[in-house]
Amino acid sequence: MKLLLAIVQDKDSNRLSSEFVQANVRATKLSTTGGFLRAGNTTFIIGIEDERVDEVLEIIKENCQAREQYVTSPVTFDISMDAHSSYPIPVQVGGATVFVMPVEGFHHF
Ligand code: 2BA
Predict the structure, then answer these.
(1) Minimal-distance CA residue to ligand 1 atom 36
(2) Distance (Å, whole) CA 104 – CA 6
């Protein structure tokens, strides 16, 4: 068995949940926050048999898009101590960031 941690954008999370239900993939959804953008995202915890890992990765890939978001750079000062106003910088977010980990034990009481 493997444990997948899949960090996805909020916009993709409902569709991905539905696809997991349809495919009989059991998952837990957590509301999380990205460390860089400090914006909400969604982390799925998925316990799955080894032979189904590729299937789950494919579902995630099919349902999570890359999108551009803007991060505002901090105000900077030049040598004359004039403040330059902050301006938005584009960063590409996603489709999804997925960690695959081995599971030592699984109990379902
Ligand atoms: P955030 O940390 O909010 O990052 C959002 C996007 O900002 C990232 O997209 C990446 O394009 C950019 N970014 C992140 N850190 C950066 C940095 N130090 N300098 C420049 N750009 C940076 P993704 O790579 O697709 O990541 C989406 C979200 O997945 C992240 O949101 C974070 O919540 C999670 N994530 C990504 N890599 C991770 C990792 N190695 N460990 C834990 N969580 C991770």
Answers:
(1) 97
(2) 19
